[in-house]
From TrEMBL, chain A:
GO terms for cellular component: cell outer membrane. Belongs to the SusD family. CDD domains: SusD. Residues 70-222 form the SusD-like N-terminal domain. It comes from Leeuwenhoekiella polynyae. Residues 334-449 form the RagB/SusD domain. Its main location: membrane. This is SusD-like starch-binding protein associating with outer membrane. Gene3D superfamilies: 1.25.40.390, 1.25.40.900, 2.20.20.130. It is found in: Cell outer membrane. Keywords: Cell outer membrane, Membrane, Signal.
TrEMBL record, chain B:
Pfam families: CarbopepD_reg_2, Plug. It is a multi-pass membrane protein. GO terms for cellular component: cell outer membrane. InterPro entries: Beta-barrel_TonB_sf, CarboxyPept-like_regulatory, Plug_dom, Plug_dom_sf, TonB-dep_OMP_SusC/RagA, TonB-dep_OMP_SusC/RagA_CS, TonB-dep_rcpt-like. NCBIfam families: OMP_RagA_SusC, SusC_RagA_signa. This is TonB-linked SusC/RagA family outer membrane protein. SUPFAM superfamilies: Carboxypeptidase regulatory domain-like, Porins. It is found in: Cell outer membrane. Residues 222-344 form the TonB-dependent receptor plug domain. Belongs to the TonB-dependent receptor family. Keywords: Cell outer membrane, Membrane, Transmembrane, Transmembrane beta strand, Transport.
């Protein structure tokens, strides 16, 4: 009897120490090392991390004009610094735009680095995940190079400082800034490589489709001034997706305006760094609108509608209709505008006006709509339409930078808290400073001239 | 034979003797040994030898008899054959003279009472001892565990086991001594009888001394434990009647700081920079699932957040606790491996005793405290507050709420000002109205309707006993607490059963322990919010009830006109009264905890045991947050989502009509299995060897969810179906969705695997060495086994010097121990990983896509955090322990502390975990117990302890490079303690009433200058935020059965910031909306030029964030934290035995009354602010008011 007890206890004891290592080598729920193809797709599904882009360029652009003194005094220090194009914006805090974008690049690099060796997915699934990551990475670098580097200029791009170009998830590499040309080369390569592996349409517009990659490429080519390529890419995108919302349908109940994934205009969903834009719009912008333009009625609202911080003038109301963010990714109207601009620039004014008319027919009540006639300065007409269509998305800053290269472009002047500030075309102030704390940690990053 | 009198024993041979004793050689010299240690002869008796001569033994005895008053008893002719002894002229101590004269064949014993010395010749048979055994019980025949049983004058001894049994070898005529804490010591001479069953008498006038410590894995004799342990017994816990166990323990455990205000415990300060300093809490041998001694409601197990209702319940039933051991140094704690770096608290619950009749124990505590005094809030009165509002109004800080329908309602006073400005009322009407407001105060109404006296009741009944082969302990407990805030309540039920049974011819013992605790708490924030600035906060003149006794409903979201307008359109009432919400918006927290542990122990031999034990624990935490449709929150939610159909004027509801109910549930489960070999061997009472080795696996997991439902009908128990992504129209014109506020389902699972061993070897109960080693492994994702698991070890030595020849005779010295230990502890890197890990986040609520994110990037440079601890201790007692002193000195080196260092965001991460920090800390603890008076009728006991702890960041990777003060955040700076406090140097107000500060050089920084103009050196280091010194001073005075105890605690050497303004409620621009701070300090704010000469409080015009922050975080507001407080006075009465024995059923009865939280009796700062409860603008930060309790304890 005594012996048998001993045996039982020894048996239990040995059970406890049996298969020891395996006992603790199990995954924790909801947390594991990147193993399966699904894991990589989960990373790419993280909407709130991958959709966000910059915010400050919108505030720096001439979309915004603060005339209300009370409101001006309530603007936070960082926003005020951006608004007056100050050299040092951040104090000793992080630059949220830079952070957001490089965080996306890290995530994309993890996928690009590991997805092909992952388990449990088909070859096509792995390739698609890889392609999606490349589109996200391209969007992030396109944003970065346009905020923190000079406008692309074929003559100087190979020597102009771009941004650090990280292509693997390495935490210890040096951070020298690649040239503007090199960054664009990477953006274009990534997008071109991605197109073949992506489906034409996705479950929703957040997941990059081949249409999204093509549309983004059209934006990139327009930015670097290759109008031929931009035109054909924009037309290719429009051949795949061309729905435009008829605003007349939403005038009665504005909150029925389509939400982010029902909106047929969005080709690739990306959003501004801030979910709302509670700043007064510039009078110059508001003056561009016809009284009957439904974009004015639906997408702008008086400053008193913002009771938490009211201001004089009107603000951007579209994001408050559904509170789902400010969409800044390529859209059908943007493709139409690229098409129109390229047509105008390549000497096809009638076709350009015709594209504008197609777009504008969705922007007025049928009763109020009047066609535009071909006129002397078609390009200006296209650019004005572009402002009416894309205000509030930060795209204006990119437009200012590329249009600055054209002789007749404008100087922006603003008065803030009693002082007057001026932004000359091609001024160094068009290039945001890289936060000194990043340079302090990695002195190989060169700062931008002022 | 010749004896040299100058040197009684050559030094060299003395050293040799010590050396020999450390070896096994002396094992064979037991007769010499027993002779040497056998004498307790008075050392004070000096014998003078007049000239060199040879003496016979009888002559020597005569010499001693002549020069002292001792008599000798011996057989007349036993020295017949003994040689004469040569003595030289001089003085020799009587004891030594006897030792030198008698050869080892004789033994002598000494009696103080009769002043006689008896000598007997050792016969060969007398050396052979016989086995004596028996059971030691108390008066009620309850077996006593851990009674020290030893043979007088030999140093041989053991302690009784759980059944009170002992076995010891002794010779006839030797004296067996039975000694037990709290009982009178008994001495019995050995006769031929082999069995001696003893029952000890309770000693009211006893010493507090503990003989056994539990590490959770084994029980060690305290005399042979090398580590730094502190043990609190059931009796200590009982002596401090308080509902919160933290309060009972505060100030009585050296080195352990119980921060009652923050419900946290720390043992010997900190080992990490930011992390968790909480010690591991172990109950009955296994880590507790709930790692708190006490819980505030809403302290969820995992995953859910909660609110407080200001009542705290102890996690464990205090009446079930037999002992609490605090394991403080490496030797004590490292058996717990990687979880022991912060020390371990081991709780043992009570068990029954074998062969004992059932004993019932009934106890109850009732405690009452008045609501805290609202005047201590240090708030402005109505008139001062209106002056403040008037200034804001006059200086155009406020927006006229009547100018636009969407503007939020103003206060009653500012509305009056605007109405007069708009011409709606006349100036005379305004002045009359303001005058009326100035004269009304809500203090009385708040006291009457929102607050009440706190009442707590606790009842406990237990029964314990046992038969020949089994024992049991069963208890039930009920507690109820009604805190000062109305609408809140906490209740707790607990049952415990511990049974033990010997089976299979007593070779196997089976233990089973079951505990279930269930608590229900109701939290309602209406009363707290009414006392806190915010939209529900009451201004000093805001009444709750009007003259006719009707509740005053106040419009919040809109001005009264706009509110009336909405209400007339059929909207739900849109006003608020705190009294109404007391019953309409409650959060219930129902928490259940079950613990089952069991152990099967098999005796392999008399000295070896093999045990298999296991524990299973399950905790559920259920949250039911119910907001009635009539509660303000729900009415507001529904109203905002309600629009009017322009066609027919009907209301369109965007949010379903009905209450909102949020259900949350967390289930945690934990099991452990352990197999352990115990060896407990004695060799002839000379060598004692304790050894354990075992292996353990443990899994702990948790799961939980939150679920919100709208349109809840309480009676029908139905809810509406809503799509949280469907937008609805709001009154503001924009769309809103209900959204997903529930978060993801969550799930965690941890597994641990350990091997451990501990060995203790004692020689002659005098020299002890110990060592322990432990190897831990856990399922930490992304860390390789090499980095995941490392061995942790400790070593210790103890010298019980009192047992040495040269001290054993010193009567004034009752104990002297020296301890030295060294060891390592560590923790696995749980915050980083060496390969990238993905965390799954559920699914995105708009896209429905399941998503994940990189929770930590792969960093191959990660490793363990380790802490090395050296501890030296001294235990010394004088005059039969009437003075007892324990001193421990320690130093800790923490290396490779995992620090989330700021990283270049360009890599995608703004912070990255690195093993980068080094921290050194050191400290000491002194525990002094003195009994100036101790006799049958009177005892005066003074107990004093002090703990000192300090730390310093020692690696140079943390330069001081920030130029703003640490506003509550931890800031690691090389050369400074972890809890440093840096502040601005105050330079007074400028002529516009704004804050100025000095740089290091004394230059003034204007409020308009940004932080960029400041260098790190411009900040001033003022000290630490946790006390360097803390401890307690407990005095108890007993007269017969009446005992008066006072407990004083103190803290010294730290600084606190006086939060006398609330920065977030301070106007910092020319436009200000919302709620004002009500701090009385604001009365002295700068208002007119010239005021800067008489005040330091910034004015409101032109005030900026900089100005307010620089005022709030400047040296002006730094207070010394030094304080001494009277925690408790208690008076207890125990019914005398003579009375108890007259009743037929009662065993004992005691009664005690006590007053707690009596506040500081001394503070260092001039303003008299209690630094433990610095005003933070809310009622919650007020010190608890005095509390009185009555407890009754009955045993039958």
């Amino acid at each position: 009897m005594k012996k048998s007890i001993l045996y039982i206890l020894l048996l239990v004891g040995s059970f406890i120490s049996f298969k020891c290592q395996e006992y603790v080598e199990i995954d924790q729920p909801m947390q594991r090392t990147l193993t399966y193809t699904g894991d990589y797709q989960y990373l790419l599904n993280y909407v709130s991390r991958l959709e966000k882009s910059y915010f400050y360029p919108e505030l720096a652009s001439d979309d915004i004009e603060i005339t209300d003194e009370t409101f001006a005094n309530n603007v936070t220090e960082k926003n005020a610094n951006v608004y007056i194009w100050a050299e040092n914006i951040y104090g000793d805090s992080e630059d949220t735009d830079w952070n957001t974008l490089y965080q996306q690049i890290y995530t994309a690099n993890e996928v690009i680095n590991g997805v092909l060796e992952s388990e449990g997915g088909t070859e096509a699934e792995k390739e698609e995940a890889l392609a999606q990551a490349k589109v996200h990475r391209a969007f992030a670098y396109f944003s970065l190079v346009n905020v923190y580097a000079k406008q692309y200029d074929a003559a100087t791009a190979s020597t102009d400082l771009g941004v650090p170009l990280l292509l693997t998830p390495d935490l210890f590499v040096a951070l020298e800034r690649a040239s503007v040309a090199r960054v664009y080369e990477q953006i274009i390569t990534d997008l071109e490589e991605a197109v073949d592996f992506l489906p034409e349409t996705q479950k929703n517009s957040f997941l990059p489709s081949s249409t999204g990659a093509i549309a983004l490429l059209a934006r990139v080519q327009l930015q670097i001034g290759d109008y031929e390529k931009a035109l054909s890419l924009a037309e290719e995108a429009l051949s795949r997706q061309s729905g435009v919302n008829n605003l007349e349908n939403y005038i009665e109940t504005p909150t029925s305006y389509p939400g982010r994934y029902e909106d047929q205009e969005i080709i690739l969903l990306k959003t501004l760094g801030n979910t709302v834009l509670d700043f007064p719009l510039s009078q110059e912008l508001l003056d561009l609108f016809d009284e009957k333009d439904l974009r004015y009625e639906l997408f702008t609202a008086p400053g008193t509608n913002y009771p938490w911080s009211p201001f004089e003038g009107r603000g951007y109301w579209k994001p408050r209709l559904r509170s789902q963010g400010i969409y800044i990714g390529p859209s059908v109207p943007e493709m139409m505008l690229i098409q129109a601009e390229c047509l105008a620039r390549t000497n096809n004014p009638d076709e350009a006006i015709s594209v504008l008319n197609t777009l504008r027919s969705y922007r007025f009540k049928a009763a109020d709509y009047q066609e535009l006639e071909t006129q002397a300065n078609v390009l200006q007409e296209v650019l004005d339409e572009r402002r009416r269509e894309t205000f509030g998305t930060g795209l204006r800053w990119l437009d200012l930078k590329r249009l600055n290269k054209e002789p007749e472009f404008k100087t922006i002047t603003r008065t803030f808290r009693g002082d007057t500030y001026t932004l000359e075309p091609n001024s160094n102030a068009y290039v945001f400073q890289i936060n000194p704390i990043y340079i302090q940690k990695n002195p190989e990053i060169e700062s931008n001239p002022r | 034979m010749e004896i040299n009198l100058e040197s009684t024993l050559p030094i060299r041979s003395k050293a040799l003797l010590l050396l020999l004793m450390r070896t096994f050689i002396l094992l064979f010299c037991s007769t010499v040994f027993s002779f040497n240690t056998g004498s307790v002869f008075s050392q004070n008796s000096k014998i003078q030898i007049l000239e060199n001569n040879e003496f016979s033994i009888d002559e020597i005895f005569t010499l001693i008899k002549e020069q002292t008053d001792y008599n000798f008893i011996y057989q007349e002719d036993i020295f017949k054959d003994q040689p004469k002894v040569a003595l030289k002229k001089g003085i020799i101590q009587a004891g030594n003279l006897l030792k030198k004269s008698l050869n080892p064949n004789f033994s002598f014993s000494f009696s103080k009472d009769t002043r006689t010395i008896s000598i007997r010749k050792k016969t060969p048979t007398a050396i052979q001892s016989q086995l004596i055994q028996g059971i030691v019980t108390d008066e009620n025949k309850v077996p006593l565990l851990g009674v020290t049983v030893y043979i007088k004058n030999t140093g041989r001894g053991i302690t009784t086991d759980e059944d009170g049994r002992y076995k010891i070898y002794a010779s006839e005529g030797e004296i067996v001594v039975f000694q037990y804490v709290g009982y009178k010591t008994q001495e019995i001479e050995v006769t031929e009888k082999a069995e001696m069953n003893i029952s000890l008498q309770l000693d009211l006038n006893s010493l507090e001394e503990v003989t056994v410590v539990s590490t959770g894995y084994q029980k060690l004799k305290k005399s042979s434990a090398t580590g730094a342990y502190e043990i609190i017994t059931a009796r200590d816990i009982q002596e401090n009647p308080s509902i919160n166990i933290m309060e009972r323990l505060q100030g009585i455990v050296p080195g352990v700081r119980f921060d009652v205000a923050n419900n946290s415990i720390s043992i010997r300060g900190t080992n990490t920079f930011y992390g968790n300093n909480a010690p591991l809490i172990v109950i009955d041998g296994f880590p507790a699932i709930d790692q708190n001694l006490a819980n505030a409601p809403g302290t969820a197990l995992t995953g859910t957040s909660g609110e407080t209702n200001n009542s705290i319940l102890s996690t464990f039933n205090m009446n079930d606790i037999e002992s609490i051991s605090f394991l403080k140094d490496a030797a004590a704690a490292s058996i717990w491996g990687s979880r022991a770096a912060n020390g371990v608290i081991v709780i043992e619950t009570k068990r029954g005793r074998k062969n004992s009749k059932p004993i019932f124990n009934l106890s109850s505590i009732t405690s009452i405290s008045a609501a805290s005094d609202l005047t201590e809030l240090n708030a402005m009165n109505s008139s001062e507050y209106i002056d403040f509002e008037q200034e804001l109004f006059d200086k155009n800080f406020l927006t006229d709420p009547f100018s636009y329908w969407r503007y939020q309602n103003g206060s009653e006073a500012t509305n009056t000002m605007f109405l007069a400005q708009n011409g709606t009322i006349t100036e005379a009407e305004r002045d009359a109205r303001l005058e009326q407001l100035r004269n009304q105060s809500n203090v009385g109404q708040i006291n009457e309707h929102l607050l009440r006296a706190q009442v707590t009741n606790q009842y406990n009944l237990s029964v314990s006993g046992g038969g020949d082969r089994s024992s049991y302990f069963v208890s039930g407990n009920y507690s109820k607490d009604t805190p000062v805030f109305r609408g809140n309540e906490s209740e707790q039920y607990s049952v415990t059963a511990n049974v033990s049974s010997d089976i299979l011819n007593d070779r196997v013992t089976f233990n089973l322990g079951v505990n279930h605790t269930y608590s229900k708490r109701k939290v309602n924030s209406a009363a707290i919010q009414a006392l806190t600035p915010g939209q529900f906060g009451l201004r000093p003149y805001d009444l709750l009830i009007d003259e006719d006794g009707n509740h005053i409903n106040r419009a919040i979201s809109f001005t009264p006109d706009v509110t009336d307008d909405y209400e007339s359109q059929g909207y739900l009432p849109w006003r608020y009264n705190a009294i109404d919400d007391l019953s309409l918006s409650n959060t219930g927290y129902n928490k259940g905890a079950t613990r089952v542990n069991s152990k099967i122990n098999a005796k392999l031999t008399s000295w070896a045991n093999l045990a298999v034990s296991g524990s299973w624990q399950r905790g559920t935490n259920e949250k039911v947050d119910y907001k009635d449709v009539a509660s303000y929150n729900v009415r507001n939610l529904i109203n905002i989502g309600t629009t009017v159909n322009p066609d027919n004027g009907q209301l369109i509801y965007g949010v379903p009509m009905g209450g909102v109910i949020q259900l949350g549930n967390t289930v945690s489960e934990d099991y452990s299995f352990r197999g352990q070999l115990d060896i407990n061997k004695d060799w002839n009472d000379i060598h004692h060897f304790d050894f354990i080795a075992g292996t353990e696996r443990r899994e702990s997991k948790a799961e939980g969810y939150n679920h919100t439902r709208y349109g809840y009908d309480k009676d029908a128990s139905t809810t509406a179906t809503v799509n949280p992504t469907t937008p609805y129209q709001t009154i503001y014109g924009y769309g809103m969705t209900l959204g997903n506020t529930d978060g993801a389902l969550f799930k965690t699972r941890r597994r641990y695997l350990s091997y451990y061993s501990n060995a203790n070897y004692s020689f002659l109960s005098t020299y002890t060495v110990s060592g322990s080693i432990r190897y831990d492994d856990a399922n930490i994702v992304g860390v390789s086994r090499r980095d995941r698991a490392i061995p942790l070890w400790s070593a210790g030595a103890k010298w019980n010097a009192k047992n040495e020849n040269f001290l054993i005779e010193k009567e004034w010295l009752s104990s002297l121990n020296l301890r030295l230990t060294y060891g390592s502890g560590g923790s696995v890197p749980t915050s980083g990983s060496s390969v990238s890990t993905i965390a799954l986040g559920g699914s995105d609520y708009l896209s429905g896509l399941p998503y994940g994110y990189i929770s930590s990037p792969g960093n191959q440079k990660l490793g363990w955090e380790t802490t090395k601890i050296v501890n030296a201790g001294l235990d010394i007692g004088f005059f039969n322990q009437r003075i007892g002193l324990i001193v421990d000195v320690y130093k800790k080196w923490s290396e490779g502390i995992l620090v989330s260092v700021p990283y270049n965001a360009t890599y995608g991460w703004t912070t990255l975990y690195y093993n980068t920090g080094n921290l050194e800390s050191k400290g000491y603890e002194v525990d002094l117990n003195v009994y100036p008076v101790r006799n049958e009728d009177w005892t005066l006991h003074n107990s004093f302890n002090i703990s000192y702890n300090t730390n310093e960041v020692t690696d140079n990777r943390f330069p001081n490079n920030t130029n703003s003060p640490n506003m509550g955040a931890t800031r690691i700076i090389t050369g400074y303690p972890v809890d440093n406090l840096f502040v601005y140097r105050w330079a007074g107000l400028d002529e516009t009433g704004q804050s100025q500060i000095y740089t290091e050089e004394g230059e003034i920084i204007a409020p308009s200058q940004s932080a960029m103009d400041l260098e790190p050196e411009d900040l001033k280091y003022v000290g630490r935020t946790t006390p360097k010194y803390f401890g307690g001073f407990v005095n108890s005075l007993r007269y017969k059965n009446l005992k008066l105890t006072t407990r004083i605690t103190y803290e010294f050497g730290h600084k606190v910031l006086k939060n006398d303004i609330q920065t977030s409620f301070y106007p910092t621009s020319s436009y200000f909306s919302g709620f004002l701070g009500t701090s009385k300090t604001l009365v002295n704010r700068w208002q007119n030029p010239g005021d800067e000469n008489s005040t330091n409080v910034p004015g409101i015009v032109g005030s900026s964030f900089n100005s307010v922050q620089r005022y709030a975080y400047s040296d002006l507001n730094v207070l010394s934290g030094d304080n001494i407080r009277l925690n408790q006075i208690s008076l207890s009465y125990t019914l005398p035995n003579s009375v108890v024995s007259k009743t037929n059923f009662l065993r004992s009865m005691s009664l005690s009354i006590s007053a707690n939280n009596l506040g500081p009796i001394w503070v260092k700062n001039d303003e008299g602010i209690d630094p433990q409860y610095v005003f933070a603008g809310t009622y919650n930060s007020l010190a608890p008011s005095e509390n009185y309790s009555l407890s009754v304890n009955l045993s039958f």
